[in-house]
Design goal:
349 residues, alpha/beta, four-stranded parallel β-sheet, binds fructose -6-phosphate
Length: 349
């Protein structure tokens, strides 16, 4: 397969180049977050009961990744992907609005709903109406560089958010975790580059060509990554994908693998991490063995031996690269998301 030829032919804004440049994005995002942290430090006094991260799509996933990474050492984090903010969630909360463009109606509505109800507010955005409202309301706003498809700016959605949460006293983590993750991301980007046709990301894309991905994981470190894989297959590869979690899926979805013809065209991608509960791992083993006779194929991925941030981002990168290679195999440009653009236009009327 001549990947460079496909890249030149199909990839109008070089999505592959953006994924390859993730380590550089991490460095830039980390610096921005560190520079912004002092602005969030006065929020410490509030002693938050919870954190609510409001956002949609690619920007929401930055929050999901933060939640997964910090699940063992942060004030409980809830995500808000709706216009409304339940009052019992809002009270005593640090509200973080995350919108790459700053113009997503749902996130702006959640921002407005949070005003005067939550304990404190902060935002991460490249500008737009969200930055304007923050300036109007005196809400600290971390500005990240614009001009990318939001999903390609995942480093900017995640790393400044980690700084914000730590500075506001809602999370703890060590800078060495970032240093390690940066090294691992560099290794992974070199490994998944199109220089070798037999790398794991290309193999994954080939396994998914003409198929539907069912991404299964545990609701622990890889919860946000499972969603990210699914969304990247949707948006970059323009193909349907689905995600669900063990052990819950063993109590309903597993029975669905019985009647119909979609299953033979479905590939189960099972993501596992060493912090998954041992019984959840057992659920995955048993559940997958019961689904095996019905599924087109099952591919299993175990995170590498490293820290939590490194494991999470290494696994995310495998899906990010695979989604771009799958776009090439599908003969589509990974960047445009015409239906999302049309939807936003219609909804803003
Ligand atoms: C497009 C993408 C979308 C957006 C979503 C919200 O690349 O990833 O999922 O993230 O439509 O828009 P923003 O992030 O600008 O608030």
């Amino acid at each position: 397969m001549n990947w460079q030829e496909l890249r030149a032919k199909l990839d109008s804004t070089d999505m592959l180049g953006r994924v390859l440049a993730f380590p550089e994005q991490m460095e830039a995002a980390w610096k921005i977050g560190a520079g912004f942290a002092p602005a969030a430090e006065p929020l410490r006094e509030k002693k938050f009961e919870r954190v609510v991260i409001a956002g949609m799509g690619g920007s929401a996933i930055g929050g999901d990744l933060a939640k997964s990474f910090l699940s063992d050492r942060a004030t409980p984090i809830t995500s808000c992907r709706d216009y409304a903010l339940p009052k019992n969630v809002a009270r005593g909360a640090l509200f973080v609005a995350s919108s790459y463009s700053g113009n997503t109606g749902v996130t702006l509505a959640a921002y407005d709903a949070a005003r005067g109800v939550v304990a404190a507010m902060v935002a991460v955005t490249s500008g737009g109406e969200l930055a304007a409202r923050c300036a109007r309301d005196g809400v600290p706003c971390c500005i990240i560089p614009g001009g990318m498809p939001p999903r390609a700016a995942i480093g900017f959605s995640l790393l400044p958010m980690l700084h914000v949460l730590r500075a506001a006293g809602a999370a703890t983590f060590d800078d060495s975790e970032y240093d390690e993750a940066l090294g691992v991301a560099r290794e992974r980007c070199a490994e998944y580059a199109p220089t070798r046709d037999d790398n794991a990301a290309i193999k994954l894309a080939k396994a998914l060509h003409g198929k539907t991905a069912f991404v299964y994981a545990a609701p622990s470190l890889l919860e946000g990554v499972a969603r990210r894989w699914s969304c990247q297959f949707n948006e970059n590869s323009k193909t349907l994908a689905h995600f669900a979690f063990f052990p819950e899926l063993n109590h309903n979805e597993i029975v669905g693998w019985e009647v119909g013809d979609i299953m033979k065209r479905a590939v189960i991608l099972s993501l596992q991490d060493r912090d998954d509960h041992p019984m959840t791992r057992r659920h995955a083993d048993v559940g997958l063995s019961l689904m095996k006779p019905f599924a087109g194929a099952i591919e299993r991925y175990e995170t590498p031996a490293s820290g939590r941030l490194s494991r999470m981002l290494a696994t995310m990168l495998l899906g990010d690269f695979a989604s771009v290679y799958l776009a090439y195999l599908n003969g589509v440009d990974p960047t445009p998301v015409k239906k999302i653009d049309a939807l936003k236009k219609e909804m803003s009327r």
